[in-house]
Design a protein that fits this description.
GO terms for molecular function: iron ion binding; L-ascorbic acid binding; procollagen-proline 4-dioxygenase activity. By secondary structure, the chain is of the alpha+beta class. It is built from four helices and 18 strands. The structure holds 2-oxoglutaric acid and fe (ii) ion.
Length: 307
């Protein structure tokens, strides 16, 4: 029986059926039987891309994270980190998204030191929309300072990494101090941009208060609910304001040395809408904050397969 070569249009039609069937049915079904050692070391975040995962090239050169103006390379922890021994206390506020409150995340001495090294370095804060950076005091009015990586900063980088369980592919961004004078604020925003599928995104945020000599300046999360216990009123605003209105959601009071930690991304890599937050205006005095952002960037895929 003679077989004729299939026509090009027939092959294309087969492919149109086969490719989705492979991606959505065969590949997920076969994957448990053919685990791939490289992908099994990946904790999460790649799942949305796993159907096209062929081979991960984990060589550091492919991470493109050597730019130390953005990322703090994991290049050694100083001996005897100050403040570490004093310990911090952690309180669970929300499970999904994960929101934790950390008392004494930095000691008073560390906070003072960080404020000290930030002086003379402040420039107006910018906002970033995922594409361009601009100064817009109607949205964000504060100054920020990129901190030199001295021993205190390196110890804090290590504390942030340790806190998050030394998660693979997580990189601590260079740290910025942020200073708000009277009327300084940061309108509601997300710290994540939704760019994980394009390479990386901010998995988590530590918002640390370094200086609290101010009125106002609370950190507001309008989409998070007030937790039950009255104990939270030490850290959260429970009182009505002068107009007798309770603010939407929850508002953390600036308390020197304490930190709010939250995860910005869901396990599938998409951003949590509940992490929408703002720095309410400082009405008098000065508030100083410290942003410790953790950048999650899985290694680039090596589609070629060869090394
Ligand atoms: O200062 C605050 O309370 C929040 C700051 C903030 O959200 C940010 O810098 O992204
Ligand atoms: Fe923020």
């Amino acid at each position: 029986m003679a077989y004729s070569t299939p026509k090009l249009s027939t092959i294309i039609t087969w492919l149109l059926y086969f490719v989705p069937v492979y991606i959505f049915v065969l590949d997920p079904l076969l994957r448990p039987y053919f685990p791939d050692s490289a992908s099994s070391s990946l904790s999460w975040g790649e799942d949305q891309d796993r159907h096209v995962l062929e081979e991960w090239d984990t060589s550091p050169s492919t991470l493109h994270l050597t730019d130390d103006s953005f990322i703090s390379p994991d290049d050694g922890v100083p001996d005897n980190c100050p403040g570490e021994a004093e310990g911090y206390r952690v309180h669970l506020l929300s499970q999904a998204p994960l929101v934790l409150y950390i008392e004494n995340f930095v000691s008073a001495a560390e906070a003072d030191h960080l404020v000290e090294i930030s002086l003379n370095k402040y420039t107006p804060s910018i906002i970033y929309n995922g594409k361009t950076q601009q100064i817009d005091p109607s949205k964000r009015l504060s100054d920020r300072a990129l901190l030199d990586r001295d021993d205190t900063v390196r110890c804090l980088e290590n504390r942030a990494r340790t806190f998050q369980g030394w998660r693979p592919h997580l990189y601590i961004e260079r740290m910025w101090a942020q200073r708000y004078n009277a009327s300084g604020h940061y309108r509601h925003h997300y710290d994540w941009t939704g760019s994980l599928a394009r390479g990386g995104d901010r998995l988590s945020t530590f918002m640390v208060y370094l200086g609290d000599e101010c009125e106002g300046g609370g950190t507001n999360f309008p989409r998070l609910g007030m937790p039950g216990g009255r104990e939270w009123c030490r850290f959260l605003e429970c009182e009505e304001d002068e107009q007798g209105t309770v603010k939407e959601g929850i508002t953390f009071k600036p308390i020197k040395g304490n930190a709010i930690f939250w995860e910005n991304l869901r396990p599938d890599g998409t951003g949590y809408p509940e992490t929408w937050h703002a720095a309410y205006p400082v009405t008098s005095g000065t508030k100083v904050g410290l942003n410790i952002w953790s950048w999650y960037q899985p290694p680039k895929r090596n589609r070629g397969g060869g090394r």
